[in-house]
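Hi R.,

Here's the chain you asked about this morning:
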Amino acid sequence: MKSVFVGRHVRLSVLFTLFGATCLAQRYPGPLSPEQSLSKLKIVNGFKVQLFAAEPYVLDPVALEFDEQGNAYVVEMPDYPYEVEPGKGKGRIRLLKDTNSDGRVDKSTIFAENVTEATSILPWKGGLIVTAAPNILYLKDTDGDGKADVREVLFSGFFQDNSEAQVTSLRLGIDNWIYANNRGQSGMVTFSKTPGVPPVSVRGADFRFRLDKNKFELETGPGQFGQAIDDWGHRFFTENSIHIQQSIIPWRYTHRHPYLGLSKFVVNISDHQEIMFQKTEAPYWRAERTRRRNQNFKEANVNRVEYADGHFTGASGGTIYTGDGFPKEYQGNFFVTDVSGNLVHRDILSAVDKSPVMVAKRGAQEKDVEFLYSTDTWFRPITFTTGPDGYLYLLDYYRQHIETPVSIDDDLKADMDFMAGSDKGRIYRILPDNANVKNVKVDLKNTSSAKLVAVLAHPNGWWRSQAHRLLIERGDKSVVPAVKALLNTSRDARARLHAIYVLEGLDALDAAVVKKGLQDAEPGVRENAVILAERFPECLPQVVQKINDPANRVAFQAALSLGEFNGKDVVPALAKVIAQYGQDSWFRTAVLSSNAGSSAELLAALVQQPSFSQKEEAWKLGFLEDLSAIVGARNNKEQVHAYLETLSQPALEKGAWQTSLLKGLKKGLGKATGANAALKDAVGNIKTDSGADVKASVLKLKTLY
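And the predicted structure, written out as tokens:
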């Protein structure tokens, strides 16, 4: 009897096990081979996708870069989503090779291992800069065996407790600075090249650095996994549910004084919200978690809805396409992935009238479909890079689950294997339908500096960037005449801008070069020339002229840069900016960000501008209130006294001018440090209910100043 019971129990256990496995298989499908997964990829008409690399040659890829010899280095992150101690993880950097030139990797060697939390790389001086929280490393192979034997810590002190919010996305800008995302995380960062310099707090910011000048400074952000810099130096980045943001004002301007009162200098520029056309169903855990959350919102009377699919939740890897392998209309397009939606999205970037903010629009082919999508739920596109061949390379992390366990309810993750797929990884090549694999031979390492100058005019941005970097690394000033000749003769505006910044990197920039740039036919060149003009006081008249530039982005940069100059012409010029562009909040912020643009003198200049003072408008009153708040918060006795004198002019007593000015002044003085008891009492008693109240309050403040 016992044996019969045992036999029946075993059979039932097997049945339940098989039933459970069947349910689990239905709930979470299994993996596909590289070829099978490739067949599930669908792309818009005119393009095709090829497999460039797959397991076992690459596993868990998160970053890919081609160096000056065309070598493909890929960063692998097998430990995700679990945290490990620095130096104890299984992270690797591999060197991939296509030995038979058929367009597919057939050999890989480990360049570096135990690189914990590595997320991005950038070629530099024959090695690689690597973001690997809490550090940024420099790795190099000096003996030619293909393995890094130099391992130097360049920076340390970055946040390291969440792999989804760590230092990443190294990008070399046109301006010779290397930019990286920090997700705004806290950290006290030290730079090994500047011993003795106090650590820099990076909380709330991204950052940039120069290894040729040993500089490190904060930059506007924060961005997450994905940073793109276009040909003219404009920064864009991704952040989970916001697939494209633009950095509008660099940190160095927004922190010229501590009274600006704003904290966000980035903006979502998508004109189609966060809708994506996903072709895979939401996984069971996400659908159930979303159902639970929406039920909780309803019960708590919270006006909020969460979506399980069809909306960006895992946007990453934002990249500007600068290659020459796609049709011309794809130049400068923004590509971004969504790892949860199993797709690639494309945006076309366009300027906006009278604003520095761009707009991101869908392409004509993609009004109701994405540029690329898969029906394989394991397909986890994570980022891109442009290759020497001009094509776009797409990295597929290929995991069953991509989310971190900490954000999923315990009962839902009980049957989820977060490491499923850690033995897999794919890299795809995206190219036009009528194109073939190019066996491009690259040897810029052994190319003379003189010949590198000509490469600055290459139609593929990858080649231009490599040549630019090598010229800066070498510091060979013998090429200065050739670079200036390129600036004077090239028909390609991108090459002309490269030439200007190569001269800057070689310490060969002068006012004559900058003035030439200010007259360039391309707005992007003029905009950067305005930035560089800040170094040359004699360029002030030309910068003032740029207020009237037909390109609003150039005029905007002039508004920012004018605050870096001294002289009697600066304040009137800033007042003119407000009169012409003040309806745009970003132009107003640009002016207020400088000391000259937030001074009593600016108010006096605006009173003298008929186009500003003769017609009362809401935006003008708002600007004056903001200006007054800064003047008050600064609480400089001489400046407040001058401000009160201007505020008392008869021209400002009409309408709401004086009331708005006093409201702002009250707000600012209330925050001023070092205010005495009499001032605090007077500020507390300021009233703006009537004209008589305003006059009385102004008179009271005058007695204190």
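The radius of gyration is 29 Å.

Let me know if you need anything else.
M.
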